Each structure stands twice: as structure tokens, then as C-alpha cells.
Amino acid sequence: MTKRFDNRVAFITGGSRGIGKSIAENFAEDGAKIAIIDIDAEALQNVQSEFRDKGFDILALQANVVNSQEVEATMEQVIQEYGSLDILVNNAGIIRDNLLFKMNDNDWDQVIDVHLKGAFNTTRAAQKHMVHQKYGRIINISSTSALGNPGQANYSTVKAGLQGLTKTLARELGKFGITANSVAPGFIETDMTKSTADRMGIPFEDFLKAGASKIPVGRVGKPSDIANAVAFFADEQSSFVNGQVLYVAGGPTN
């Protein structure tokens, strides 16, 4: 049976856990060849073994998205192995939350680098292959925090920046058969949200219940909810959907 992403190659940053891993798995189940990069060697090894046990075709490569040379090298390795690069998902991210008056230079710089410089490095490296083959799908993972969120001046800034990058890429690359779109998750149950609960001194289950109480659908999101939205933008048949931001938050956003 033909699958939606047969013969497609998807490159996912920060793909060893959480949302990134779910995105990778969703693509793989639908026939894609998968390349993931991350800085966590152990997590990469684990996900590579897990995926290969399921029969998925995967390359798990250690690289720091902030380092353009490492990004270029891993992308070239993917091209050599699989012959193309069709889908790029810029998912890698970190949080360094604090109120502005407590936020130090490092808190700001690290978040800016990983999210924005990282997305710039991977997109610049990927687009030349996509332009050559006259086809590509670029999906940037933003957040509802792009609309503003106390304690996240750095994170809100980068997530809004990714939306601006998305719209610019859509205008620059559309004529080459390349679309760029953004998925903006709301409250998603991940290790990152667990670390937020830990930092606040709140039991994770209580944190999830409090979050769900504010969401119209009555639950928090799962990584698979984001993976499904990413797959829509990545679909070959979504070629007329370009430069859009889709909030996946269980209800309207402000």
C-alpha cells in the first residue's frame, strides 16, 4: 500500500524526544525516511534503536544547530545517504524562563541562538537542495508564547521571530516549489512542561490539570497533536498553503 510520504526524506531538529520524536515517528509510519539531529548522544542512540526495531529508515546524527558547520555536514550526510531532502522541521529548542528583571545575558543568548540561529542555519543549508530539486516543505515550530507570555521574554521573542522567518521564506522560496509554514503549539505534555512544573514546585499532574482547565477542549495537548499538524503542512497536496501559522492549542488564541 502506498503511503503519504513514501520516497520523501524528512529532517527534524531536536528529534530525540517529545514533540520532535513524535513528528519523526509520524513521518516514518507514513513511509518517510527520517534524519534527526540533536546534541544528546544517548537519546539519539535510544531513538535510533527504537525506530529501527519498528522497521523505520532513520539516521540519528549528533549536531548542534547553533554550529553552521555541523549542520552543513549532517545535511550533506543525509543527502549522500538518501539522495534528497524534502521536508525540514525546525523543532530544536530550549527554555530559560525568568521575569525580565531576573533574566541574565546567558538566558537570553542561549534561547536566541538555539531557536533563531539554529533555524537560520538549518534552513539556509536545506534550501539549496530544495531549490535544486524544485520541491520542499519547511515547517517551523513556534508557540502560543509568540503572542506574549510573562516570564518568557526570550522564548516569546524567538517564537514570534520564527513566524516572521516563516512568512519571509514563503515569499522567497514559493516560486521554487517550496512552502514554509509554522505550527504553534499551546500547552503540550512534554519533558519541557514537566521541567516548568518542577521549577515552579508544582506536582506535574496538578500542573496538567490546571492547564487543562483553561483549554476549551478540556485537555492538554499531546506531541502527536503537533505531529499531525506538521504532517498536513508537509503533505505534497498542501502546495497552496504557504506562509501560514497554525495554532494548535485546543481553542482560540488571543
Using brief descriptors, characterize the structure shown.
alpha/beta; Rossmann fold; 2 domains; globular
The helix/strand class is alpha/beta
Count of separate structural domains: 2
Averaged pLDDT: 97
- Give helix % range: 40-55%
* Multimerization state: single chain
Summarize the SSE layout with pairings.
Layout: E1 9-13, H1 18-29, E2 33-38, H2 41-53, E3 58-62, H3 68-82, E4 87-90, H4 105-133, E5 136-141, H5 153-173, E6 178-185, H6 191-200, H7 204-212, H8 223-234, E7 245-248
Parallel strand pairs: 1-2, 1-4, 2-3, 4-5, 5-6, 6-7
Helix pairs in contact: 1-8, 3-4, 4-5
Structure write-up:
43% of the residues are buried. It is built from 8 helices and 7 strands. By secondary structure, it is of the alpha/beta class. Strand 2 (33-38), helix 2 (41-53) and strand 3 (58-62) form a beta-alpha-beta unit. It folds into 2 domains: 9-186 and 222-247, NAD(P)-binding Rossmann-like Domain (Rossmann fold), CATH 3.40.50.720; 187-220, no CATH class. The termini are far apart. Strands 3-2-1-4-5-6-7 form a 7-stranded parallel sheet, sandwiched between helices. The chain is 48% helix and 15% strand. The model has no long low-confidence stretch (mean pLDDT 97).
Short description:
By secondary structure, the protein is of the alpha/beta class.
